[in-house]
Amino acid sequence: MAITNGYATLAEYKAYASIDSTDATDDGVIEDLIESASRYIDAQTGRTFYARTETRYFSVPGSRELRFDDDLLTITTLTNGNGTTIASTEYYFLPRNVSPKYALKLKEGSSTAWYPDSDSNYEYVISIAGTWGYTATRPDDISAACMEITKASYGRRKGQNMQGVARVTAAGVVITPQDIPASAMAIIKRYRKYN
Fold this sequence. Notes:
Number of domains: 2
Number of helices: 4
Order of helices and strands: HHEEEEEHEEH
Number of strands: 7
Largest sheet: 5 strands, antiparallel
Mean pLDDT: 90
Helix content: 25-40%
């Protein structure tokens, strides 16, 4: 099995946890734990720490500012509700000097405005094709949090961290409260997205 959008690789985790085994079954379990820990981090922060190329749709805003429902890294194409492409010279990103971006604003001097589609629909008629995510490459501390969670979950397999209430993730992996070390939770909280 391969890890999809994991915040650590199998080799990184095995070096971190000082595991010399080359058992394929054990490696598969570790990969599952890494991927589950990564998705747990996504769920807890409300963000992803890898770049995704997608087209997302938005309703016509009531002002010149268009807020996103996800972190934005780059725009390939911004299409207005009326089907016209809006040039990058007509808007700027918010916040101006840091990433990730949470909105864009049409410039005051621009003659461009937000428009509905040809049927006068205002809902989800503006599209942004681009790269979405908090960062294109995972931050080192997010990787450390992933490995800490994975190590705690892996330890439970060996009879450690057995007390407490268990939780099953969407991927079907059981994560207990003891699987989330305080150091990992402190990192996660720093990245948490508040709407």
